[in-house]
Design a protein that fits this description.
CATH topology of the largest domain: Rna Polymerase Sigma Factor, Chain: A
Number of domains: 2
Family: Belongs to the sigma-70 factor family. ECF subfamily.
Structural class: mainly alpha
Number of strands: 0
CATH class of the largest domain: Mainly Alpha
Radius of gyration: 17 Å
Order of helices and strands: HHHHHHHH
Pfam families: Sigma70_r2, Sigma70_r4_2
Distance between the termini: 21 Å
Protein name: RNA polymerase sigma factor
Helix content: over 70%
Organism: Steroidobacter agaridevorans
InterPro entries: RNA_pol_sigma-70-like, RNA_pol_sigma-70_dom, RNA_pol_sigma70_r2, RNA_pol_sigma70_r4_t2, RNA_pol_sigma_r2, RNA_pol_sigma_r3/r4-like, WH-like_DNA-bd_sf
Strand content: under 5%
């Protein structure tokens, strides 16, 4: 990440190669639509290129930081989609389906299956915390209320869950 922060294009390309498939899978899981996940992934890496110097290694791993930035971008994308969602549903019967090609769907389905499998390796509280935070978009404050647990504990569950997910997805 330090090399990317210095403008090293090869380091940035390597970062993309190592993390993009995992991030795309998580994006498809969060957004339920591959094209939205691809948009968020592109926005994420543009942001990383311009703001890699903001990464703080002492606060967590690179992949954890990327997931966090991706989560906020995905939530923004979902919020932007809400006003048009009703129109999209009304027009769905009149418009031809233009979905992603089958091989792309198979890849995203495979990644989603891997994410689900890795989620199953987490403890119950870690899985629930990560799912609520990253896939349902709850803030830490909302999680503390929903789980009736102190903020520090919720953050620990999420952090440990993300570390375990990262290790599982890297296998």
């Amino acid at each position: 990440m330090q090399a990317t922060a210095r403008g090293d294009r090869q380091a940035f390309a390597r970062l993309y190669e190592l993390t993009a498939p995992k991030l795309l899978g998580a994006g498809v899981y969060m957004l339920k639509r591959r094209e939205l996940a691809e948009d968020v992934l592109q926005d994420l890496f543009v942001k990383v290129w311009h703001r890699a110097s903001e990464y703080q290694a002492e606060r967590g791993g690179v992949l954890t930081w990327l997931y966090s930035v991706q989560r906020y971008l995905a939530l923004d994308k979902l919020r932007a989609q809400r006003p048009t969602q009703e129109l999209d549903e009304d027009m769905s019967n009149t418009l031809a389906f233009e979905g992603p090609d089958p091989s792309a769907m198979a890849m995203s389905n495979d990644m989603a299956a891997r994410v689900h499998k890795c989620l199953d390796t987490l403890t119950d509280v870690q899985r629930r915390s990560v799912t609520l935070a990253f896939f349902e978009g709850l803030t830490h404050a909302e999680l503390t209320q929903k789980l009736q647990t102190p903020l520090g504990t919720v953050k620990s569950w999420i952090r440990r869950g993300l570390v375990s997910l990262q290790k599982c997805l890297e296998q």
